[in-house]
Amino acid sequence: SLDAIDLQDRCELSNRTGMDSETLKRAFLNNLFYVQGKFPALATTNDYYMALAYTVRDRLLQRWINTAATYTELGSRTVAYFSAEFLMGPHLGNNLINLGIYDQVEQGMAELGLSLDELQEEEEEPGLGNGGLGRLAACYLDSLATLDIPSLGYGIRYEFGIFDQDIRDGWQVERTDKWLSAGNPWEIARPEWSVEIKLGGHTEHYTDDHGNYRSRWVPDQVVKGIPYDTPILGYQTNTANTLRLWTAEAPESFDFRSFNSGDYLGAVYEKMISENISKVLYPNDDSSQGKQLRLTQQFFFVSCSLQDMIRILHGQNLPLENFHKKFAVQLNDTHPAISVVELMRLLIDHHQMDWEQAWTITHQTFAYTNHTLLPEALERWPIELFGSLLPRHLELIYEINQRFLDEVRIKFPDDEERMIRMSLIDESGERYVRMAHLACVGSHAINGVAALHTELLQKDVLRDFYEMYPHKFTNKTNGVTPRRFMVLSNSQLSKLITSKIGDSWIKNLKELQQLEQFVDDAGFQVEWRRIKQHSKTELATYIQNNNNITVDPDSLFDIQAKRFHEYKRQHLSLLHIVTLYNRIKANPDIEITPRTFIFGGKAAPGYFMAKLIIKLINSVGNVVNRDPDVRGRLKVVFLKDYNVKLAQRIYPAADLSEQISTAGKEASGTGNMKFALNGALTIGTLDGANVEIREEVGEENFFLFGLTTEEVYHKRAHGYRSRDYYHTNAELKLAIDRIASGFFSQGDAELFRPLVDDLLNQDQYFLFADYASYIACQDQVAAVYKDQTKWTRMSILNAARMGKFSSDRSIEDYCRDIWKVEPVNVELRQC
Ligand code: F55
């Protein structure tokens, strides 16, 4: 019988757990035969990639199963990270790093005549996020597993992730991201844990057996959610947690009804409508458009996840009253904020709990992270739309609101204005449900993502809530994982660091500080510079192959890589480029530090101005890159389709990191951390986490410019007139006039008029006000770069002082202050 086989024997017989180079090679060939059904002569790169992925997956499975068994046995307190986005990036390399077998596998593949780099390149990355918010969720999963914290990521398995970006004639064009078409070896479907989701319809009121007045939801649509699980292995630990993403399908029973009535096409149509729910990621990273499908997506994944958690609770024989003791749920922005109401509904309507108890459990369960200060990004749903999709939830929101406003009235008597401002319902015009208010009321903790951001939330965006519940507010400065963004993406620098200070910095990033003792060590400086140069040369090759532009690896690599948005001010960097170009045109022999300006990033497909800025970058590049007067001293490169894979090539190659948002607009930023960790110097404003980065690295190692948040507020309040700057700054005027004249657009003076007019007449992001300070600061950057010893010194100190910005530190802060959860050690017992 199965039991008779010794567990250890089963492990070894299977070839599926051994980590030595020979076993790995054997397992790989085995998978090529028995999983891909190929032999080497017919195998494609994808076959090899898949065979290797399954080889790695087997090693993960052993840890995953042991982790699940341990948590089940112990009934461990668990973090559930609710996020509409998880921007994971490719899994293969990361799993090899975390398993500690990267070098063995690279060598094993080489012995078979295969390149591990090439196999990694083959992986289609799961781009299930827009930008910082989705990538933060992914870094946090890595840290949760690395710190041995029991956790689940819950989200949506979009069939199409963030669009692929192409550039045609300088314009962004979008293509659908078919990331699943070659199959996904990292996930396992768990149809046995499917759940049903109700949508639409109406409510009915009735009196139950105990004489209580109750409400029941009669939906007009039911969809099925199917979970797909991906193991998330920690670094050098046995802990493998789960990312559980939901796919929507039509329930079988639904086709039956229509089939029986003979409405075949109707049944197929219903099925199609259901499957639309998890079809595509909304590509906006800044504004909520109030589309019904988006609200449906949010409710869908939240309801699936909460039902799944109740199943887990019951599976461990824990009573529902313990929900908040078993689970800490983090809401990644307001996208999953409907959870607050859905948990209330499940407890009250499905499990007959009374209101007070349900509310205690609910608000002790949830905590809310805010990621934005932009008013247009705060989610609001028109009451009509909300009520037609979630009629029962609207009733519950009214009840929550009434009780909440009673509390406000008691704390702040006779303050009708405050009640209107704080209500969960915006009644100033068309009526809306305010999701941030719901999240604040329904959570026991509220946090911003950088110190300045949290302060501004308390002073401004969520001021009333801070006054009402000051104890709920904390700051949790973002962090990034050093595994993916150093060990994997910058292996040479990582190895140099390890050779000097040992490898414990990888799990304890503060130890990078020990590098300071080598800052004046000439040999170390040479090595440091050589590795940066190597990364720049590799990026230069990539640029040659993809953009057909030759760039000089000795030039200063000045990089801005992030979503395109006016507040991030990619066009401020453009004004700098045009200014340098104008200086050269006025005096071709001018002494100038050669620079390569590199941009990467996507614009939301409906964001005209952001797309126009991309077009302008490409247009300026076309002129500057070819003008013989420039003599190759300036190059402008737009790298298309910026994603996690490309980001991993970019960070190691940067000399200068552009973090130039208008003060008070960028909640935190996380690219700023990745660049600095890889030894780039930052030019930046006092915005988001830049403030803390500068504090850590020292002001003498940071290029600061621009207005402060207070100065921006002050200018706005006192009638900011950008045109005055245009008229008084000759270089600014020249730059704007060049763009406006059609110089970069083959004489077409209309093309960039919307941008130029906006800057002259509105300039709501204060480019003109910050221009002079930015240019002066850039001139200083250019001067320092000429002194390579000084620059290298600053670069080393930047990396050495980035310890605070590990996502491990962020997660430890969340665990201690919000989640109250402890690590659980996992031992390997079974295969
Ligand atoms: C996505 C969808 C909507 Cl509807 C709204 C916003 C987004 C989104 O992607 N936001 C986002 O990425 N925000 C960023 O979060 C980062 C992580 O906290 C911050 O570092 C960054 O400042 C912030 O803009």
Automatic annotation (TrEMBL):
Modification N6-(pyridoxal phosphate)lysine, positions: K674
The keyword Glycosyltransferase appears for this protein: yes
GO CC terms of this entry: cytoplasm
Keywords: Carbohydrate metabolism, Glycogen metabolism, Glycosyltransferase, Pyridoxal phosphate, Transferase
A Pfam family: Phosphorylase
A single BP term in Gene Ontology: glycogen catabolic process
One GO molecular-function entry: pyridoxal phosphate binding
Reaction catalyzed: [(1->4)-alpha-D-glucosyl](n) + phosphate = [(1->4)-alpha-D-glucosyl](n-1) + alpha-D-glucose 1-phosphate
InterPro entries on file: Glycg_phsphrylas, Glyco_trans_35, Pyridoxal_P_attach_site
Cofactor dependency: pyridoxal 5'-phosphate
PROSITE patterns: PHOSPHORYLASE
EC number, UniProt record: 2.4.1.1
Alphabetized NCBIfam families for the sequence: P_ylase (TIGR02093)
Protein family membership: Belongs to the glycogen phosphorylase family.
Function comment: Allosteric enzyme that catalyzes the rate-limiting step in glycogen catabolism, the phosphorolytic cleavage of glycogen to produce glucose-1-phosphate, and plays a central role in maintaining cellular and organismal glucose homeostasis. Phosphorylase is an important allosteric enzyme in carbohydrate metabolism. Enzymes from different sources differ in their regulatory mechanisms and in their natural substrates. However, all known phosphorylases share catalytic and structural properties.
Name this protein carries in UniProt: Alpha-1,4 glucan phosphorylase
Lineage: Bacteria, Bacillati, Cyanobacteriota, Cyanophyceae, Acaryochloridales
Gene: glgP
